[in-house]
Design brief:
Layout lengths: L2 E4 L4 H10 L3 E4 L9 H11 L3 E4 L6 H4 L3 H22 L2 E7 L24 H13 L4 E7 L2 E2 L10 H11 L2 E5 L3 E2 L2 E2 H13 L4 E4 L6 E2 H12 L4 E5 L1 H4 L14 H4 L10 H12 L3
Parallel strand pairs: 1-2, 1-3, 3-4, 4-5, 5-10, 6-9, 7-12
Antiparallel strand pairs: 8-11
Helix pairs in contact: 1-7, 2-4, 4-5, 8-11
This protein binds NADP nicotinamide-adenine-dinucleotide phosphate.
Length: 285
């Protein structure tokens, strides 16, 4: 199978390229720009892939609130250009989406399934929801929603929670962490493995691909420092105290059981095991 991975210098795109090896061609800025409609068409015609996995995206959730034009140019128009190029060349499109397409239901306490009605609460989430609608113009499409990705940072990756916590803990012994946002941070190694499996079986439709279970950023950080054996004082704070530019869902846990029900699928371990695995492969730097 000839595979193109866009956003290949980011977190997920980089991991997918590593896992696929020579089967995949990676594209990213500056050579490949999703907002350049003609350029996108040229790349797709030249490479003629069977499958395009679009990991390119505007991923800075807070900055998107004041930079919505750029965010939408990449996440909405860019995906429309890619889907149109797929339509012309016959390629299947795998679009990576997010738990942040949900969140408007303040009373929600059960994991979201693929068919649940969306309701984003910020500019980024809305742009990703629209990206899903555009992706469906491709002749064959797969939408993979994930959450709180962490793993090795690619050269252009925007960063992740684990690396930020480790960096900050080295600067100071006390960290404030939000304790009222429930979700499932997920290890890119496992997410990429699941995407490879879905591509291999030519899956179509929407899939939630996250590690199993649910947590808060506070509990996730506490577990992380417990595994590392670091003594870091954590202060539990609310989203209101953190006061970030973008509103975030209080509950955006995704239910991966549709994926887990496919027989012979590779595993999506619980988030605690996934975190431990990443910290051990990462090494103590
Ligand atoms: N990170 C998460 O927690 C998370 C959670 C759920 C879903 N997702 C989704 O998963 C996908 C991958 O996320 P990630 O964490 O791997 O992101 P990432 O590390 O920020 O990587 C995204 C890559 O896309 C590139 N890019 C940005 N604008 C582009 C453009 N116009 N043309 C081509 N490439 C462009 C970025 O380059 P620059 O850095 O130079 O902009 C970067 O290399 C995204 O669709 C994201 O929305 C992410």
């Amino acid at each position: 199978m000839r595979i193109v991975v866009t956003g290949s210098l980011g977190q997920l795109g980089g991991e997918l390229c590593r896992q696929f090896g020579p089967e995949a061609v990676g594209l990213d800025l500056p050579e490949f720009d999703l907002t350049d409609q003609r350029g996108v068409g040229r790349w797709m015609e030249q490479l003629a892939p069977d499958v395009v996995i679009n990991c390119a995206g505007y991923t800075q959730v807070d900055r998107a609130e004041s930079d919505s034009v750029r965010c939408r140019a990449v996440n909405v128009s860019g995906v429309a250009y890619l889907a149109e190029a797929c339509r012309r060349t016959g390629a299947a499109l795998v679009q990576i989406s997010t738990d942040y397409i949900f969140g408007a239901d303040a009373a929600r306490q059960t994991p979201y399934r693929e068919e649940d009605p969306p309701g984003p609460v910020n500019v980024y989430g809305l742009s990703k929801l629209e990206s899903e609608r555009h992706a469906k113009a491709a002749p064959r499409w797969l939408i993979v929603r994930s959450c709180g990705l962490y793993g090795r940072l690619g050269p252009r990756a925007a960063g992740n929670f684990v690396e930020t916590m480790i960096h900050q803990a080295k600067q100071r012994g006390r960290l404030r962490v939000v304790a009222d946002q429930h979700c499932t941070p997920s290890y890119v190694g496992h997410v990429a493995r699941a995407i490879r499996f879905l591509v291999a079986i030519r899956a179509v439709g929407v899939y939630h691909i996250v590690n199993q279970g649910a947590t808060t950023w506070y509990d996730f950080a506490a577990e992380m420092f417990r595994i590392l054996g670091w003594s870091v004082e954590l202060e539990r704070i609310s989203s209101a105290q953190w006061n970030s530019p973008a509103r975030r869902p209080g509950y955006s846990v995704l239910d991966p059981s549709k994926y887990l029900a496919i027989s012979g699928r590779p595993d999506l371990p619980p988030w605690q095991e996934a975190l431990k695995e990443y910290l051990s492969v990462r090494g103590a730097e």
